[in-house]
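quick q for whoever's on today - can somebody do inverse folding on this one?? i tried earlier but teh output was garbage lol. tokens:
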């Protein structure tokens, strides 16, 4: 029975928050793997990963990130069968033009089960997050070839349209699309219940989706997503607080909180294998 199951993704480190924001943010591969494992034990079926310099926590992408992601995957797989999802979003350090293709390098080498695919450009804080149409399609084509399921990340309604036109209508997916509706970034759609409902209603038929609520919106929008039939992402990448003014000690605290809410709402938490079935992943 997968109908009543909710997939929890733990975004355990991200690229923006640092230990100044929360001293418990994992930087080294061992710490990242341990946080992934604790999140799995608490109920997460998917772990979303960014590469960081183990000493400084600086975000790393491209070729340089390959050994770091490789280490993450190896250590995580030794501990549990959680689904590993690698970012292709890069880090806070933006690289330009064709150089952007380098963001796909770790996915090409390591072939994780899933990878993020951003389907639109935008202002992101004080930076520009460039995802031009050619890049989106090149990423989608490569992922299709490699058998890596994309997680279509949309930060505003126009990105949904781009995903439909550039990826879905071009038959660059071999299974139903999985969307991540990101609400509350500086430059993206604000995190309100009305906006989540609007985004959800803008999705194409026959897709799966999750909400990514930024900062204090993580848990409330997660709860609304569960009520609307969606899945949820929690974790330090998007939010470092367990409750107002209280820093989470581990990503697992945030996962556990979401598990309690899901159960109170009459649903159950998907295991990694149930999530594979829901997301049509090839194992
Ligand atoms: Zn990410």
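ok took a stab at it. sequence:
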């Amino acid at each position: 029975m997968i109908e009543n199951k909710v997939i929890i993704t733990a975004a355990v480190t991200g690229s923006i928050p640092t230990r100044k924001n929360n001293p418990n943010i994992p930087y080294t591969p061992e710490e990242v793997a341990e946080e992934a494992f604790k999140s799995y034990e608490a109920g997460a079926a998917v772990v979303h990963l960014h590469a960081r310099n183990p000493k400084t926590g600086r975000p790393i992408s491209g070729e340089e990130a390959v050994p770091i992601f490789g280490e993450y995957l190896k250590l995580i797989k030794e501990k549990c069968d959680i689904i590993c999802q690698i970012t292709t979003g890069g880090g806070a350090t933006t690289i330009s033009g064709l150089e952007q293709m380098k963001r796909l390098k770790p996915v090409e080498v390591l072939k994780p089960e899933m990878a993020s695919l951003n389907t639109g450009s935008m202002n992101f804080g004080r930076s520009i997050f460039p995802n031009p149409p050619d890049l989106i399609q090149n990423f989608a084509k490569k992922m299709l070839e490699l058998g890596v399921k994309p997680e279509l990340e949309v930060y505003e309604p126009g990105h949904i349209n781009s995903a439909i036109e550039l990826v879905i209508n071009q038959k660059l997916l071999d299974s139903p699309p999985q969307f991540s509706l990101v609400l509350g970034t500086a430059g993206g759609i604000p995190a309100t219940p009305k906006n989540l409902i609007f985004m959800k209603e803008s999705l194409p038929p026959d897709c799966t989706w999750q909400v990514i609520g930024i900062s204090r919106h993580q848990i409330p929008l997660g709860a609304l997503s569960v009520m609307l039939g969606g899945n949820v992402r929690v974790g330090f990448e998007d939010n470092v607080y367990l409750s107002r003014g209280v820093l989470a000690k581990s990503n697992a605290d945030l996962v556990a909180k979401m598990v309690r809410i899901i159960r109170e709402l009459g649903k159950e938490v998907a295991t990694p294998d149930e999530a594979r079935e829901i997301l049509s992943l090839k194992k």
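fwiw The chain has a mean pLDDT of 95. also The two ends are 19 Å apart (CA to CA). so keep that in mind when u check it
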